[in-house]
Design a protein that fits this description.
four-stranded parallel β-sheet; five-stranded antiparallel β-sheet; 280 residues
């Protein structure tokens, strides 16, 4: 595959993906879009089309905005014959990105998750619960709360009618993540890592160590196979002190652990391009 356009933004993730493709001799360029876009946005599509016209790539891969690119996919591929927009359908991406819908879907598969609390749950003194906006990005929209007032303040600042998820907080757990790539032949490749530290009580990871995690990897495979999802997706889990493992969320895009995965030999950008280049 030649002429790959990586489009979007997510910290250093885009540059990491670019470096991986270049290291394998794949012609690639990165165009940042300095906002998080979940669905459709005029500025996103305008810059994307300008970039395609200027760079004439054979393929486009989203970095942080897969749903927006999925909505534009059909129009782009019709306008630019020969262009391959490497992204799943909006329907599947939206399900994985929705905290509420994904929780319900994973529950239907029998996958263990933290206990879901009613939206009017009364937070007891000294208790911590997790408030999750239905759609969030890079940890934004996930809050640890310790009072009813905090829950009300967060819910009041949402868009009208927007759902949210309230979960039991698991104290003292180890954060584990799985990145998965489901191939067109039905196989799913996985690689795992654990976080070695975070900023604050539940903030971004400050370190990661690659290691095998059989239960999380099996859950990731089951979800992608049940959806008949093709492409890449990340999953976050937490392992409680009693060794129970709980699924926290899905991220249908390159994740912040990309550099750790590449260093461990799980080179997702190159693997994704190699899979789709088989169509050439």
């Amino acid at each position: 595959m030649k002429g790959v356009l990586l489009f979007g933004t997510m910290g250093d993730t885009g540059r990491t993906a670019l470096g991986n493709l270049l290291s394998h001799g794949i012609e690639a360029q990165l165009v940042d879009f300095p906002q998080n876009v979940f669905r459709d946005e005029f500025g996103y599509c305008r810059l994307l089309e300008k970039s395609i016209l200027a760079l004439n790539p054979s393929a486009v891969i989203p970095i942080g905005c897969p749903i927006a690119l999925a909505r534009a996919k059909d129009g782009l591929e019709k306008r630019f014959p020969g262009l391959d927009v490497i992204v799943e359908t909006e329907e599947k991406l939206s399900l994985l990105d929705s905290k509420v819908r994904f929780y319900e879907y994973a529950s239907s598969l029998g996958i263990r998750q933290p206990e879901r609390l009613d939206e009017d749950y009364h937070v007891r003194e000294g208790e911590t619960v997790v408030f999750k906006r239905d759609v969030s990005f890079g940890g934004h929209g996930v809050h640890l709360v310790t009072s009813d007032k905090a829950v009300r303040n967060l819910s009041d600042h949402q868009r009208k009618g927007e759902p949210f998820l309230l979960e039991r907080y698991i104290e003292g757990g180890v954060n584990r993540s799985v990145d998965a790539l489901r191939l067109r032949d039905g196989r799913t490749l996985t690689s795992s890592y654990r976080s070695t530290g975070t900023i604050g009580k539940n903030g971004p990871s400050t370190g990661r160590v690659a290691e095998v995690a059989p239960l999380p990897e099996a859950a990731a495979v089951r979800i992608l196979e049940s959806l008949d999802y093709h492409g890449l997706c990340g999953f976050d889990f937490i392992e409680a002190p009693d060794s129970s493992v709980y699924l926290l969320e899905a991220n249908p895009r390159f994740t912040g652990g990309l550099s750790t995965q590449i260093a461990a030999g799980f080179e997702l950008p190159w693997m994704l391009c190699r899979e789709y280049s088989k169509k050439d």
